[in-house]
Design goal:
With about 300 residues, the chain is mostly beta strands. The chain folds into three domains: about 80 residues, no CATH class; about 110 residues, no CATH class; about 70 residues, no CATH class. Helix content is about 0%, strand content about 35%. Strands 1-18-22-21-19-20 form a six-stranded antiparallel β-sheet, with no helix packed on it. Strands 5, 6, 7, 9, 10 and 11 form a six-stranded antiparallel β-sheet that branches. The longest helix has 4 residues. The relative contact order is 0.21.
Length: about 300
């Protein structure tokens, strides 16, 4: 019996199927490495702005830009960041207008935005406002716990009170699984000629970005290989399970090995995939009957995937 060292998960080509690679917004402060299982991670409670309005404010236009003011609050530890913000007019009883335009607010390190909305020009009966914010466009979540009077302000927290994004899954991830990380979260790829790779022209494949001059802005995203149904993947089998052909057809779940940091499959975890067959190859790399850490081909069932 041999012990086969764990290796990164990789796509296995069967039946001419191939997985999709999809860009996702990372959760604030997310850290992962290539080959990690990423999940959709929600902080707090995500309530998005009502596109059509609510209650008696259905169809009521949101606050115009002239009514919205942004200042800065000193917030210890806050990174320099871009915030995407929408506001609505509101009053008690769940009545709320259509959201405003999406405002883009750049904050320096150690600061976060303060949002104020003027009562001037507000719709009849409106007394208050709500603030929806995100670090990425189109993903705004409500940041004030209850409607805020026009005479008051809302100061955004760092990280945001309510947000959503992808992050590394916890051991035995079995829900909200997005896929496999294509790159390390801190990886930059130089795509220009000359100069330092630490500034200027870089391609955003991890979770950092630095744009060269005179190019369109590109919002931070990370590429994920989807674990969709009908695709096949090669994983290491957890070392608590010697390989025997009788394991073909067994249900397996995902497991993060704490010692090596590799994601493997394990029959003792909540099932998200099925062992399709042994991985063929050199025995010292892929393993053989009786070995632990054997490489196997699995297909995902859709359970726990998003």
């Amino acid at each position: 019996m041999a012990t086969i060292p764990y290796l990164l998960p990789q796509w296995a080509s069967f039946n001419n199927t191939s997985p999709n690679q999809v860009p996702y917004y990372p959760a604030p402060g997310a850290i992962w490495r290539e080959g990690d299982v990423l999940i959709q991670s929600t902080t707090g409670t995500m309530t998005q702005p009502p596109n059509l309005g609510l209650g008696t404010f259905v169809g009521q236009a949101g606050p115009a830009a002239s009514r919205v003011t942004f200042t800065a609050a000193t917030t210890a530890g806050a990174p320099a960041a871009t915030y995407y913000i929408q506001v609505t007019d509101a009053y008690s009883g769940g009545n709320e207008s259509i959201p405003s335009q999406e405002f883009i607010v750049n904050s320096q390190a150690g600061q976060t935005p303060i949002v104020a909305v003027s009562a001037t020009g507000a719709p009849t009966n409106a007394t208050s406002f709500n603030v929806y914010a995100a670090r990425y466009p189109g993903m705004e979540g409500k940041q004030n716990s209850s409607i805020t009077a026009y005479a008051s302000t809302v100061t955004l927290a760092s990280p945001l009170t309510n947000s959503i994004g992808v992050n590394k899954g916890a051991t035995a991830a079995a829900a909200n699984i997005v896929g496999i990380a294509v790159n390390d979260s801190t990886q930059n790829y130089f795509i220009g000629g000359g100069g330092s790779i630490l500034v200027g022209n870089q391609s955003i494949l991890g979770a950092t970005n630095s744009l060269p001059p005179l190019t369109p802005p590109e919002v931070l995203q990370a590429y994920v290989t989807k674990l969709q149904n009908g695709t096949y993947w090669e994983f290491s089998l957890r070392t608590t399970i010697p390989w025997y052909p009788s394991l073909v057809g067994s249900s397996v779940g995902l497991y993060l090995d704490a010692t090596t940091g590799f994601w493997v499959v394990d029959t003792a975890q909540t099932a998200v995939a099925t062992i399709y067959q042994s991985s063929d190859g050199v025995n010292s790399i892929c393993g053989t009957v009786g070995d632990i850490g054997k490489r196997v081909i699995v297909t995902f069932t859709g359970t726990g995937l998003v």
